Amino acid sequence: MIAANDERVNLHMARAHAAIALEGAEKEACREEIRALLKARNAVLVAHYYTHPDVQQLAEDTGGCVSDSLQMARFGKDHAADMLVVAGVRFMGETAKILSPEKRIVMPTLEATCSLDVGCPIEEFGPFCDAHPDRTVVVYANTSAAVKARADWVVTSSIAVDLVDYLDRRGEKILFAPDKHLGHYVQQQTGADMLHWDGACVVHEEFKAQGILDLKKVHPDAAVLVHPESPAAVIEIADAVGSTTQLIAAARRLPNPVFIVATDQGIFHKMQQEAPGKTFIAAPTAGNGAACRSCAHCPWMAMNGLDNLRAVLRADDALGQEIHVDPELGRRAMLPLERMVNFRR
Ligand code: SF4
């Protein structure tokens, strides 16, 4: 299964390509046109922290939202717009559609996927769940609509520890998928009885503890911020571990002037806004001189840009980049997703 998963992920990575970068007057004209198109279509832009700073800035400037996947889901569900333009990866668009079936959900490109989603196909995950009927199925938001529909709960990294702790206190045993590093971190934090799927994020899995320790020698006053999709050895040396939103809060809160950050570099835009004057350095990935697959930047998040965002808004048919979810599947996935959205709100 591991080899098959690697092969599937590599195929998708080979197809990923960064969005066209616009500069100067061309960029400004594009921003203005998108602004007008959002208004004309009664649409709102919902962007993830890992997207390009230009996309994040435009979302903020047009009354949209820049956030983690939990807040994106909540914002999109609560917003009165007819259309949500989701800049991120495909599962985020699907989540928005399931939670708001009456809205049109479009994305700059539907090709933007996630290695966790790709590595957890329902054809394999369904039988895995069937083999463990005594376990409560908790899946990460980074999964397909079909996998969510098979789950009891959906979580994001911002609530995974609290939710599993809550289920553990109720005496429930957990089947957790697909990120094994997040799953092991949650298990270590809660002591819950957990069975893990063997998935990983291509970005976070590459961070190296030794590289971070070497970098700390150069920056002894630096704090290390780590997303829990990273390997255990990296989490162990962190000063703060958490979701993207929690890491941004740590950058603001901690007194250190320098931060070594083990998550996608797209987050630096928001960190610099929230903690001006501080320095952010990407945590080393594949070790000295070695090639990395992601180099601390998600190849699929990088597919979102102003140019393809404008293109889907210009066309009445969104150039085919509209999310559709089978209504029956959506109905089944709605329950665990709504549990996530409403958990300790
Ligand atoms: S950064 Fe990792 S978890 Fe996030 S979308 Fe990219 S591959 Fe998936």
From TrEMBL:
Cellular component GO terms, alphabetical: cytosol
Pathway: Cofactor biosynthesis; NAD(+) biosynthesis; quinolinate from iminoaspartate: step 1/1
Cited Pfam families: NadA
GO biological process: 'de novo' NAD+ biosynthetic process from L-aspartate
Keywords: 4Fe-4S, Cytoplasm, Iron, Iron-sulfur, Metal-binding, Pyridine nucleotide biosynthesis, Transferase
This enzyme's EC code(s): 2.5.1.72
InterPro entries: NadA, NadA_sf
Parts of the chain that traverse the membrane: none
Top-rank EC class of the record's enzyme: transferase
Cofactor (UniProt): [4Fe-4S] cluster
Molecular function as annotated in GO: 4 iron, 4 sulfur cluster binding; metal ion binding; quinolinate synthetase A activity
Top-level taxonomic group: Bacteria
Entry-linked NCBIfam families: nadA (TIGR00550), PRK09375.1-1 (NF006877), PRK09375.1-2 (NF006878)
Protein name (database record): Quinolinate synthase
Phylogenetic lineage: Bacteria, Pseudomonadati, Pseudomonadota, Gammaproteobacteria, Lysobacterales
